[in-house]
Amino acid sequence: MIAATWSMSDTYLGITVAVLLVLSGFFAVAETSLVRMNKSRARSLRDQGRHGAKALVELSESPEKFLNTILLLVLICQLVSATMVGVLAGRLFGAAGLFIATVGEVVVIFVVFEAIRRTTRCNIPTPRRSPRRRSCVGS
């Protein structure tokens, strides 16, 4: 049962939630990519003269400089979006909508932004044709 009608402020709230979820996904993928980058690969990219490789070497050698900040940004995006979804669902659908929206938000955040990126793998052959598996950038 709908407790209220959809208004323009609900549209803005929905757009804000979508933007926060995209930002959360971006920060989560960035965190995983930077943590999985090993120092020797970063140095190799720097030696090849790749754009941004110098900064990558600095980040890979001292992850404590960025890790807490990026994890905080992921947490803020996820908590604020969950709060906004709860406010929107509670206003539109009441207590049942709040419960369903909370479960849905947990599933979306866990499955899309946590589980998939941590379990996805790619088989990318190395130039030496070694059987070693390399992970995807976003996993």
The Cα radius of gyration reads 20 Å
Total beta strands: 0
Structural class: mainly alpha
Total helical elements: 4
Residue stretches low in confidence (pLDDT < 50, at least 5 long) are 121-130
How much helix is in the residues? over 70%
Average pLDDT, all residues: 80
Note the gap between the termini.
Answer: 40 Å
Count of the separate structural domains? 1
Q: What characterizes the major β-sheet?
A: none
Report the β-strand fraction as a percent range. under 5%
Q: Order of SSEs, N→C?
A: HHHH
Which outline best applies?
Answer: elongated
Question: What would your notes on this structure say?
Answer:
- This protein has 139 residues and is an all-alpha fold.
- The chain has one domain.
- Helix content is 72%, strand content 0%.
- It has helices at residues 8-36, 39-47, 53-61, 67-119.
- Helix 1 crosses helix 4 and helix 2 (39-47) runs antiparallel to helix 3.
- The termini are far apart.
- Residues 121-130 have low confidence and may be disordered.
